[in-house]
User: Which sequence fits this backbone?
């Protein structure tokens, strides 16, 4: 993690198909509370935690076994600890500076930063930085122009200072995001290749629930890794359908992921609906066609069932009439009933 980083950041960045990401989330607070240390930094590769440092322990430690040997140099984790300690001092100062910018003298306040880089299969890269204060966006690093852009009015002074030639923070962070960050991401990928570079897609299932007015279609994708996946419904092979429900990738206990994408449609004669899945484990995108149930068969089953019930009802009615008209049939004597049901006690 770069010791050049000076301030704030908050946000989320998702990986794309055929890419790897290295991200750091940093939080500093004005005072201990809410179960948070005064300072904490957590690192992730492909959204798997790889390291953690906090002000309570004062040590940078690996979060997965393969990170323990990411560098043969025995001094690797000691260097990481010292860099984190340097960032901790900077962020503690930044909390006070941000409070001053907003005329706050007391209370619980937080500065957050998210930074990372992404490496695509074709060798291209990108970097990003965002910052926040008390859960609101503060500034963001424009990686096209390489300048800090203030989001809050109170962030203008900070952005102006960082962008100045005297400080030159955007250029330094550009060098980090395009250089050191990518270099270490490649090392981490090699160290954790058995886990990070595996590609799995277990199964895809489509189903539909039909009502009087609409049909709700579900496409369920199970057991895939890595997390990046593109799933969509297509009408007649060419029209992309928008999902009416938020599609969220959820983790499985075995480290894989699952996703369900749902759309509502009004099928017409000749329409076809298919689920398209694009994932790095596939040689080419997968298309699964939804086939509606045969309503004629369902109707036949219902009619047949009703017919059987009518026959049974007619038979029972005829037998009752026969019993009433036949003088030789008598009701059994309840006092002498020896059936098992009446001879047992509750």
Assistant:
């Amino acid at each position: 993690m770069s010791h050049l980083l000076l301030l704030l950041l908050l946000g989320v960045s998702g990986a794309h198909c055929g890419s790897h990401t290295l991200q750091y989330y940093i939080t500093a607070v004005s005072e201990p509370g809410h179960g948070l240390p005064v300072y904490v930094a957590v690192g992730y590769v492909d959204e798997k935690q790889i390291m953690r440092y906090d002000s309570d322990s004062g040590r940078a430690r690996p979060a997965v076994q393969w990170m323990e040997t990411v560098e043969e140099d025995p001094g690797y984790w000691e260097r990481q600890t010292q860099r984190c300690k340097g960032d901790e001092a900077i962020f503690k100062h930044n909390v006070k500076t941000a409070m001053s910018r907003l005329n706050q003298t007391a209370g619980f306040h937080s500065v957050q930063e998210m930074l990372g880089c992404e490496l695509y299969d074709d060798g291209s890269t990108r970097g990003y930085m965002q910052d926040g204060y008390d859960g609101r966006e503060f500034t963001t690093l424009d990686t096209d122009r390489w300048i800090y852009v203030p989001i809050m009015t109170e962030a203008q002074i900070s952005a102006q200072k960082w962008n100045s030639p005297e400080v030159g923070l955007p250029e330094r962070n550009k060098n980090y995001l395009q250089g050191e960050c990518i270099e270490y991401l490649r090392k981490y990928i090699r160290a954790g290749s058995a886990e990070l570079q595996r590609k799995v897609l277990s199964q895809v299932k489509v189903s539909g629930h039909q009502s009087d007015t609409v049909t709700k279609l579900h496409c369920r994708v199970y057991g895939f890794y890595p997390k990046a996946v593109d799933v969509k419904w297509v009408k007649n092979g060419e029209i992309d359908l928008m999902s009416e429900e938020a599609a969220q990738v959820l983790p499985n206990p075995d480290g894989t992921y699952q996703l369900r994408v749902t759309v509502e449609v009004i099928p017409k004669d000749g329409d076809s609906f298919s689920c398209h899945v694009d994932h790095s484990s596939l040689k080419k995108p997968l298309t699964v066609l939804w086939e509606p149930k045969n309503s004629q068969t369902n109707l036949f089953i219902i009619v047949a069932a009703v017919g059987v019930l009518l026959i049974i009802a007619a038979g029972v009615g005829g037998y009752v009439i026969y019993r009433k008209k036949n003088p030789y049939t008598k009701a059994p004597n309840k006092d002498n009933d020896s059936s098992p049901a009446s001879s047992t006690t509750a």
Notes: The two ends are 76 Å apart (CA to CA). Confidence is low (pLDDT under 50) at residues 1-14, 294-314, 318-346. The longest strand covers residues 19-29. The chain is about 30% helix and 30% strand.
